[in-house]
């Protein structure tokens, strides 16, 4: 499946690329990129990053950075991007794509009235809201309007960003705030293509945690029923759908588009 947005000489940055959806996005997108494209993968798990990198076509230049995004400063992120860009810098590329995939569920056992620890809240927002916002700003500093590079920003969001779910207040509020940040970014930067993609229920570590630890009994049953009925998607299914959405370009920049949207 070809997608014009992904063809040519591309700089692709993916966070949370060591497993799950991030790993699959990297592997699927990489096959569509032109020769000489550069891929930068960021995640905490160094071994997982190496595994992802080894699966990519040899025609690509692949860089990995093992780092904890929740504590990474703008300067540290700049260094990582600058190294991957190399001496020729940003203008050598036709396209620049950043995929904000890294994220966490938070403690899914607690109702809102038990969420009283400030440090827990701060740590959650550092990773899930503040870090993608800062990384996006760093990325745009390198790939500004002057570079004449076509830019695509994909934020991996969730139905939980627009629909409340019991015991998921960390996750729901984090996804909502993060998605709204990218909607504002899209308004301010009309020349950048921005997509908030909601991948549907996908078989990942997160799904397993929800089936096992979700505090709300009805929600827990729903996630277990999803699994039992075969309704849970594979990472390949959701990433193929993402590529199809990018190919069709039927969304307005900044839109929330779900796997199941027609």
Question: In words, what does this structure look like?
Answer:
With 262 residues, the protein is an alpha/beta fold. It is built from eight helices and seven strands, in the order βαβαβαβαβαβαααβ. A seven-stranded parallel β-sheet has the order 3-2-1-4-5-6-7, sandwiched between helices. Helix 6 (205-213) packs across helix 7. The protein starts with 9 loop residues before the first strand and ends with a strand. The model has no long low-confidence stretch (mean pLDDT 96).
Give a short summary of the structure:
This protein has about 260 residues and is α/β, with parallel strands linked by helices. It has helices spanning about 20-30, 45-55, 75-85, 120-140, 170-190, 205-215, 215-230, 235-250, and strands spanning about 10-15, 40-45, 60-65, 95-100, 150-155, 195-200, 255-260.
Question: How is this fold's topology laid out?
Answer:
Elements (H helix, E strand, L loop, with lengths): L9 E6 L4 H11 L7 E6 L2 H9 L6 E6 L7 H12 L9 E6 L17 H25 L7 E7 L12 H20 L4 E6 L6 H9 L3 H12 L6 H14 L7 E3 L4
Parallel strand pairs: 1-2, 1-4, 2-3, 4-5, 5-6, 6-7
Helix pairs in contact: 1-8, 3-4, 4-5, 6-7
List keywords for this structure.
globular, 262 residues, 43% helix, alpha/beta, 7-stranded parallel beta sheet
| Oligomer kind | single chain
Report the sheet with the most strands, covering strand number, pairing sense and barrel closure.
7 strands, parallel
Number of strands: 7
Mean pLDDT: 96
Shape: globular
Distance between the termini: 19 Å
- SS-derived structural category: alpha/beta
Please state the CA-atom Rg, rounded to the nearest Å: 18 Å
The strand line-up of the biggest sheet is: 3-2-1-4-5-6-7
pLDDT < 50 runs, ≥5 residues: none
Order of helices and strands: EHEHEHEHEHEHHHE
Beta-strand portion reads 15-25%
How many individual helices? 8
Portion of residues in helices?
40-55%
